[in-house]
């Protein structure tokens, strides 16, 4: 079942935000995330807040788009009452779950409400995740007509036995079809991969990399499989039915992916993400790493405005009840201290190719930089200022593999 929500401070029923949330808002970009919690089957490795038909407890998928639209209208009013300057959404991301289990008109209607309440900035990036077997040509054309600009396909692997272990329902042959259909519809294409599945060899992984590159996507993501407690996969490993993931093999797989992607013209910009150009980076995902603002709608969705973070009730039934009552669906929230925000910035910006400005570190923290350079964990050239180029902490390939070590060294 999905993971338990964190506890926090009580969230007000009217959603009101403290005055500090508005401080500096005009200098931060604004995005919207829409969580669609439905899946046809539950993948054995997944602990996201998702539900199959048998787990919905009487709630109906047919009602969901209307509930989200109501929350979006509620959210726009919350931000207005907080006197946060009007900002058009520069990015929108529909994630899940499988957003494309809903009719395309439902996704279009939710995007339409975002446009009505906040507007979309010129050149806004609008993405939906999709399972390869949940869309066809007509569906993708409708998304493009509605204003979507990107689709991110959960490919995960091109090897049948790996897909079976992950409980994925599509066949490898589906990937070239859906990526071509998306491109023909005028959508940018991202392909998501997972490496380190129990029983997956380095040769299996190389086959998946090759298949992904053959589709010539605009963007690639590659995530190491994490065995989450309470999942089917965790139980299988505990019972000895499948082997535990091998961390050394994970590192080899990451290095292979980075080399193959680079050779094909893709540059890394965040530890798990590569793109053909700066223009095809996922700007929405980058907003999470750089501390921008976003309203997140849907069960279990996490929002962030000016250092205030809150998360909605988890189950679609509880969410529907809150929306019907006209009150905030938030379960709890936290207001980050300035120190917590600064430490979080170090944690997040040392993961990206643009790096963390050295000036964001205290003098004590900067003392760790020479040793990080000597150990090959950060780029020595980037860490030294030059005319027109401020000093930044940028991880090397080894530093990406040891990202937690870089952060711990800086924070002491």
TrEMBL record:
<keyword id="KW-0408">Iron</keyword>
<protein>
    <recommendedName>
        <fullName>Heme chaperone HemW</fullName>
    </recommendedName>
</protein>
<keyword id="KW-0949">S-adenosyl-L-methionine</keyword>
<keyword id="KW-0349">Heme</keyword>
<dbReference type="InterPro" id="IPR013785">
    <property type="entry name" value="Aldolase_TIM"/>
</dbReference>
<keyword id="KW-0963">Cytoplasm</keyword>
<dbReference type="InterPro" id="IPR007197">
    <property type="entry name" value="rSAM"/>
</dbReference>
<comment type="similarity">
    <text>Belongs to the anaerobic coproporphyrinogen-III oxidase family. HemW subfamily.</text>
</comment>
<keyword id="KW-0143">Chaperone</keyword>
<dbReference type="GO" id="GO:0051539">
    <property type="term" value="F:4 iron, 4 sulfur cluster binding"/>
</dbReference>
<dbReference type="GO" id="GO:0046872">
    <property type="term" value="F:metal ion binding"/>
</dbReference>
<keyword id="KW-0004">4Fe-4S</keyword>
<dbReference type="GO" id="GO:0006779">
    <property type="term" value="P:porphyrin-containing compound biosynthetic process"/>
</dbReference>
<feature type="domain" description="Radical SAM core">
    <location>
        <begin position="24"/>
        <end position="267"/>
    </location>
</feature>
<dbReference type="InterPro" id="IPR004559">
    <property type="entry name" value="HemW-like"/>
</dbReference>
<dbReference type="GO" id="GO:0004109">
    <property type="term" value="F:coproporphyrinogen oxidase activity"/>
</dbReference>
<keyword id="KW-0479">Metal-binding</keyword>
<dbReference type="InterPro" id="IPR034505">
    <property type="entry name" value="Coproporphyrinogen-III_oxidase"/>
</dbReference>
<comment type="function">
    <text>Probably acts as a heme chaperone, transferring heme to an unknown acceptor. Binds one molecule of heme per monomer, possibly covalently. Binds 1 [4Fe-4S] cluster. The cluster is coordinated with 3 cysteines and an exchangeable S-adenosyl-L-methionine.</text>
</comment>
<dbReference type="Pfam" id="PF04055">
    <property type="entry name" value="Radical_SAM"/>
</dbReference>
<keyword id="KW-0411">Iron-sulfur</keyword>
<dbReference type="GO" id="GO:0005737">
    <property type="term" value="C:cytoplasm"/>
</dbReference>
<dbReference type="InterPro" id="IPR006638">
    <property type="entry name" value="Elp3/MiaA/NifB-like_rSAM"/>
</dbReference>
<dbReference type="InterPro" id="IPR058240">
    <property type="entry name" value="rSAM_sf"/>
</dbReference>
């Amino acid at each position: 079942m999905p993971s338990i929500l964190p506890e926090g401070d009580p969230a007000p029923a009217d959603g009101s935000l403290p005055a500090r949330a508005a401080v500096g808002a005009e200098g931060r970009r604004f995005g919207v995330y829409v969580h669609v919690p439905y899946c046809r089957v539950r993948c054995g490795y997944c602990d996201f807040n998702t539900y199959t038909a048998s787990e919905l407890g009487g709630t109906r998928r047919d009602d969901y788009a209307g509930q989200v639209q109501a929350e979006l209208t509620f959210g726009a009013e919350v931000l207005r009452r907080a006197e946060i300057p009007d900002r058009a959404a520069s990015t929108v991301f529909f994630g899940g779950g499988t957003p494309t289990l809903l009719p395309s008109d439902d996704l279009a209607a939710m995007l339409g409400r975002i446009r009505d309440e906040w507007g979309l900035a010129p050149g806004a990036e609008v993405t939906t995740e999709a399972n390869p077997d949940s869309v066809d040509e007509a569906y993708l054309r409708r998304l493009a007509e509605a204003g979507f600009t990107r689709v991110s396909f959960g490919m995960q692997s091109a090897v049948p036995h790996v897909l079976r272990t992950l409980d994925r329902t599509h066949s490898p042959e589906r990937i070239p079809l859906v990526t071509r259909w998306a491109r023909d519809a005028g959508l940018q294409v991202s392909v998501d991969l997972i490496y380190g599945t129990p029983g997956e060899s380095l040769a299996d992984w190389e086959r998946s990399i090759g298949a992904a590159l053959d589709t010539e996507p605009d963007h690639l993501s590659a995530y190491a499989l994490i065995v989450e407690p309470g999942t089917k996969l965790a139980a299988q490993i505990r019972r000895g039915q499948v082997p535990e993931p091998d961390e050394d093999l994970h590192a080899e797989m990451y290095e292979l992916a980075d080399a193959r992607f680079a050779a094909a013209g893709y540059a890394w910009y965040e530890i798990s993400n590569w793109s053909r150009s700066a223009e095809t980076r996922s700007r929405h995902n980058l907003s999470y790493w750089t501390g921008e603002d976003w309203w997140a709608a849907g069960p279990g969705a996490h929002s962030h405005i000016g250092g205030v973070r809150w998360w909605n009730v988890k189950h679609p039934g509880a969410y529907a009840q809150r929306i019907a009552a006209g009150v905030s669906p938030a379960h709890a929230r936290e207001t980050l201290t300035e120190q917590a925000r600064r430490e979080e910035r170090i944690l997040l910006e040392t993961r990206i190719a643009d790096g963390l400005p050295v000036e964001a570190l205290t003098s004590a923290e900067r003392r760790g930089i020479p040793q990080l350079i000597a150990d090959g964990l950060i780029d020595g050239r980037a860490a030294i200022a030059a005319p027109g180029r401020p000093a930044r902490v940028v991880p090397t390939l080894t530093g990406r593999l040891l990202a937690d070590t870089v952060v711990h060294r800086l924070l002491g």
